[in-house]
UniProtKB/TrEMBL annotation:
Keywords: 4Fe-4S, DNA damage, DNA repair, Hydrolase, Iron, Iron-sulfur, Metal-binding. The keyword Ion transport does not apply. This is Type-5 uracil-DNA glycosylase. It comes from Nostocoides jenkinsii Ben 74. Pfam families: UDG (PF03167). GO terms for biological process: base-excision repair.
Amino acid sequence: MGADPPVSSSAFSSPVLPGSGWPGDAATAGTPIAADGEDVMAIAADAVTITDLAAAISVCRACPRLVAWREEVAITKRAAFADQAYWGRPVPGFGDPRAHLLIVGLAPAANGANRTGRMFTGDRSGDWLYAALHRLGAANQPASVDAGDGLRLSGVRITAPVHCAPPANSPTGAERHTCAPWLDRELALLPDVRAIVALGGIGWDATLSALARNGFAIPRPKPKFGHGARVDVANPGGRVLAVFGCYHVSQQNTFTGRLTEPMLDDVLGRALAI
């Protein structure tokens, strides 16, 4: 795949084209575009840097249902954001390229990251996550409203196993499988990571599966997800990672009190301490 000519950005119908100047957009008109699962595997494997990977993720078109949905939302928009431009593309990971903590969510929100172009930015879930990281000294500001608001993370990177906003916040198994090589490669390109916080059961399963594909030994039976759960895994080279489970920062959890600020701070704080 790396030897093939790039696909032109004219293939896009989403409002924001590669190279259009959106804050944080690493893609150009020459960035290769994945059209199916085989392309995803090949292009992900070819990524040499985190920036290369982010660019390739941001132009992926491998899952027709997700492409149609994210672009439809970007055109129709939520009434509260009717005057705003929407990103409408896959959302790559965000944060410190030398991160020692990786946070793995689920997928972009249709009117959150799908609008802003940055993970956990512009919605209530992000309000909770970035406020917690700010309290713990890992973010320079407690809130994030758009991709150009100056937010910086120190020692932390945030990603997801699915990079497109899915209908009803529910990607299919096939879509999760197609997107998996992006997470696999992101883990491989983050050699300084020592701890991972997986938000929710899907994030937990995706993280352990990606670690297994990267050569880490996962205990059997597979450790169960739970808030505050921890499992340490190692690869043949002796690299050890601590994986923590945390309830997702969704409104379903934060509004009901299932996840409180002290609970979130506790898990993130233990992971940061590593």
